[in-house]
Amino acid sequence: MGPGVKEDETETGGRKTVQLITFFFLLNISSLLAPTSGFALKTCRISYNIAKCAGLKLTAVARDIPSAVKGFDLSSNKISRVHVSDFENLPVLTQLDLNRNFITLIDDGAFANLISLNKLNLNNNKLGKLGAELFRGLSNLTELRVRSNSIKAVAETTFQPMKSLKLLDFSHNKLGHITKVKSMLQHLPNLRELYLKSNGFTTFHSEELTNSSLVLKYLDLSQNPITDFQITANVFPNLTWFNIGGAPGKTQMIWDVRNKTFLSRVSTLDITGLRMKFGDMKTLLWMVNSSLTSLRLNAMRTNLTALVQTSCTVPTLSVLQLRLNKLFFVSSDLFKLCFNVTEIDLTDNKIKTIRDDAFRSLHSLKILSLSHNKLSSVPRATRNLPSLAELDLSSNNITKLGCDDFANQTKLKQLNLYQNSIAALAECVFKDLVRLQVLKLQSNRLSNLNGAFKIPLPYLKQLLLNTNTLTAIKRGEFSGLRSLQNLSLHQNKISELEYGSFGGLTSLTDLLLQSNQIKETEINKGVFNDLINLRRLELRDNHIKYYYSSSLPLAPFSRLSRLETLAIPSQHGKGGSQLPRNLLQGLTNLLDFSIRDMHLVSLHKDMFNDTPQLTNLDISSNELKDLSPDWFSQIPNLKSLYISRTSLTSLDYLTDANLTKLEFVQARKNEYSVISEDIINSLPSLVYADFQGNGFTCDCDNAWFIQWIQNNNQTQVFDAYNFKCNYPVNLKGMKLLELDIRLCSVNTEFIMFISTTCAILVFMLASFIYHFLRWHLAYAYYFFLALLFDTKHKNRQPANQYDAFVSYNTNDEPWIMRELLPKLEGEQGWRLCLHHRDFMPGKPIVENIVDAIYGSRKTICVISRRYLESEWCSREMQVASFRLFDEQKDVLILVFLEDIPTAELSPYYRMKKLLNKMTYLSWPRAAEHTELFWEKLRQALWTGEDRVDECFPLNVVDNQR
Questions:
Q1: Measured between alpha carbons, how far apart are the two ends of the chain, in Å?
Q2: Which residue intervals of 74-118 are DSSP H helices?
Q3: Per-domain residue ranges for the chain?
Q4: Where is average pLDDT lowest: 335-339, 517-521, 877-881?
Q5: Going by C-beta distance under 8 Å and a sequence separation of 6 or more, which residues neighbour residue 529?
Q6: CA distance 521 to 507
Q7: Residues 370 and 392 sit within 8 Å (Cβ to Cβ)
Q8: What gap in Å lies between CA 943 and CA 882, rounded to an integer?
Q9: Which range, 537-541, 723-727, 806-810, is most confident?
Q10: Which pLDDT score is estimated for 737?
Q11: How deeply is 696 buried, as exposed, middle or buried, from its count of CB atoms within 10 A (0-12, 13-18, 19+)?
Q12: Most buried of the four, 179, 210, 315, 827, by CB within 10 Å?
């Protein structure tokens, strides 16, 4: 115990030390046992915070989904049961899709932990009933879909937790009676949309559903065999969308709604296929007379003309849908009362003929759909529609277009003529369509445009000519389309692009030319020079092939400074190819570039000099054998890289590529056997990596990669649990993540734990020794040090140069010089060795001490409190003590300058022991008898041996002790 330290303070310090040690010990234990969460999923993948597990043939809910996902898609699997623990760790999930499984049972409370869930899809399963606790915890659910199950029973409290539900789709189940819906509605105060299509209801009485007004806006009761429909109270005051059509069977529905106000807000009414007496039909239409805007009369089995004429008397009606009515002919009477109708849909009939005056009353008609009929030409009746803005003639049998087919249609904005058999266009065919914005001519037999687009169509923005038989684009072919933004020419047979083919298209942003027969000689003509605002150019699946990397005389895209997407993959041709070094010249804003499957054997080092903004690059399915890191230095903003199916054997080039912004890497089916730590560390922003289909080496070279897959929580490694070993041969086919890597590396965490624990124990031991044994330890230190020097000089017995070596503290030097030295040397004639006078300069102090002690017959220790506290004096005492014990001679003389109590000597264990065994001289006690003191000292120095006759004085060496 050190001077001035009290016992209670020592105990307090000891307790604090133990508490500190315990804290650090537990901290290390917790860090060692803390679970790690990896981002590699065994089956699913994460995309935009949605876990996508659709179509994977799962028989149970995947359990390794990160807790931060907001969407979970489990559709199209083979799950038969949902367990209570399946979704317990997904607190922020907002959308859950279990559509198209085989679910027959859902445990009560299975969704209880999904407190953030908004949308739940259980469509197309095999549920037979809904239990009382099924939806417990779903207080924030707004959409529930249980369509196409076999639900017959619903517990009274099933829907009680779902106070926020706004949409419920219960269609295609087996409820059988409307009373089973009552328990749903009484717990759903915010329900806005209710779909009960095809549930086997035979009657609908409002009092069996509810006695209070509902907030419903959408109600679907279609395809139920309802024969008796009765509303006796205003339970649907807010209903705007109502579907009651499509009842199976031949029995007619009896309509018993006598109060006109009960459905007074319905604006969309669907009575498709409804069997009802014409009188009841008129009553129904009379009830919605002031609010109806859209009426669907599809597949009707009554007098359609009379029904249409009755419907058109509703003054607010504007949309009339008449699909699937088996119309062959449109007479002049069908729409004669439809003055206010603005949209008519006659899709999916069998119309071959339309009377020229069939639409003469439709002065307000803006949209007319005649799609999927049997028309062989554009009906003349359409010319008499002065307000027509959209005309759909797609999927008919039209073979040719005349110059007057669209006469007077100056307000037409969209014209659909796709999926016909039109073989050619006349130059004058679109002359009157001065406001046309969208023209769809795809999937015809066009082989020549005949200058049809040289005539100005000043507002045309979208022109679809894909899937025809065009072989060439002539100079100025689209010169009349100054406002065109989207031009689709893909899937033709275009092999020739004349210079100036796209002249005049200065507003074009998207040009699709994929799947044609275009060669590099065509695009090298500068055919794209006029497209100064082009953003997207698709040239995939053509015959563009280069076999040299030298610069082209004229870079094909040099004028397309605003181009953002360029795709030229999958080009036809034989042999390995290269790309000219200046192919991308001028594309300073290019973001997305694809050269997949072009049989490239190399890429010039300067290929991307002009594309500093590039973010997506696809070079997959080529024969590239090497990529230089310098190659990527030109595209530092790259975020997505596709390098699948190449001849590359390593990803080492990425380590020095400085792709700090790269987030997505797809490197499937290559020959990568080892993914090193350096590769991954060089991609600090990586969030998705796909290494599927590589043959990995299953040894310690991939130990770090395996650990990273399992433990990292930033990067998702797609399909990692299916990675297979290719080497060594005896492990071929084994899963990479099944490799035991414990022998490959030391467990760093465990070592840190052990090391830290040991350090703490050492710290505890040191603290204990410092508090309780520090003086004993100090003594032991000097004891062994003296022993070391004693052993060293044991066999050295030099001639005694001095009668005595005087060991003293510098602070006691005045007494030595005034009292001791004059008496012993001056009067008695002894030769004394003093450290300040006789030690050898330049020699280590410890060696000087040992030589002085063993070179003198005796050692005089002049002891004071300062002496006991001096390090060097202690060493001198230890060496002298060892000589005493070793030689068994009287070689040590103790002289006390002060009276020192025994208690103060206790820390100096050796001193106390010496005093117990031998006499000593005390200067304070000889105050009145100094002569006796000096006589006793002389006798102690006298040993009977001859005195030293001479010695060799040394220069003074003064060492602070």
A1: 23
A2: none
A3: 7-34+747-772, 794-941
A4: 877-881
A5: 558, 559
A6: 25
A7: yes
A8: 19
A9: 537-541
A10: 86
A11: buried
A12: 210
| Contact of 612 with 635, CB cutoff 8 Å | yes
Per DSSP, the residues of 368-412 read EE--SS--SS--GGGGG-TT--EEE--SS------TTTTTT-TT-
Helices (H), 268-324: 278-287, 304-311
Q: Distance of CA 713 to CAs 36, 688, 708, Å? A: 9, 11, 9
Of the listed ranges 14-23, 474-483, 848-857, the one predicted with least confidence: 14-23
Q: What is the pLDDT of residues 678-723, one digit of tens each?
A: 999 999 999 999 999 998 988 888 889 988 998 888 898 988 888 9
Q: What is the rounded CA–CA span in Å between residue 382 and residue 401? A: 14
Lowest mean pLDDT among 198-212, 449-463, 477-491, 797-811: 797-811
Condensed to tens digits (0 to 9), the pLDDT of residues 65-124 reads: 888 899 999 999 999 999 999 999 999 999 999 999 999 999 999 999 999 999 999 999
Q: Specify the higher pLDDT residue, 849 or 491.
A: 491
Measure Cα distances from 681 to 305, 467, 633, 659 in Å. Answer: 74, 47, 17, 11
Cα–Cα distance for residue pair 821/805, rounded to 1 Å:
12
CB 676, CB 704: distance < 8 Å: yes
CATH of 794-941, one of 3.40.120.10, 3.40.50.300, 3.40.50.10140, 3.20.20.70: 3.40.50.10140
Q: How confident is the model at residue 916 (pLDDT cuts 50, 70, 90)?
A: low
Q: Are 460 and 483 in contact (CB under 8 A)?
A: yes
3-state secondary structure (DSSP) of residue 566? strand
Average pLDDT over residues 585-591: 97
Q: What is the pLDDT of residue 881?
A: 67
Beta bridge partners of 600: 577
Q: Specify which residues 268 forms β-bridges with.
A: 241, 294
Looking up tokens 């105060």 gives: 189
888 Cβ contact partners less than 8 Å away, ≥ 6 residues apart: none
Task: Return the percentage of the chain with pLDDT > 70, whole number.
Answer: 87
Burial of 169 (0-12, 13-18, 19+ CB in 10 A): buried
CA-to-CA distance for 824 and 119, rounded, in angstroms? 108
8 Å CB contact between 788 and 18:
no
Phi and psi at 577, nearest 5°, equal: -125, 170
HSE (side-chain half, CA atoms, 13 Å) at 443? 11
- The CA distances from residue 236 to 219, 231, 256, 266, 729, in Å, are 9, 9, 15, 10, 73
Residue with tokens 């007004």: 213
Torsion sign, CA atoms 953, 954, 955, 960: negative
Output the CA–CA distances (angstroms, integers) from residue 65 to 38, 40, 722, 736, in the order listed.
10, 9, 17, 21
* Confidence tier at 778 by pLDDT (50, 70, 90): low
Q: How many CA atoms lie within 13 A of 705 on its CB side?
A: 25
On the CB side of 170, CA atoms within 13 Å amount to 28
> Do 216 and 206 meet the contact criterion of CB atoms below 8 Å apart?
no
CB 430, CB 454: distance < 8 Å? no
User: According to the model, what pLDDT value does residue 103 have?
Assistant: 97
CA 96, 159, 198 angle in degrees (round to 5)? 80
156: number of Cβ within 10 Å:
11
**Beta pairing, strands 228-230 & 254-256:** parallel
Query: Measured between alpha carbons, how far is 671 from 726 in angstroms, rounded to an integer?
Result: 10
Residues facing 50 on adjacent strands: 47, 71
Task: Tell how strand 367-369 and strand 390-392 pair up.
Answer: parallel
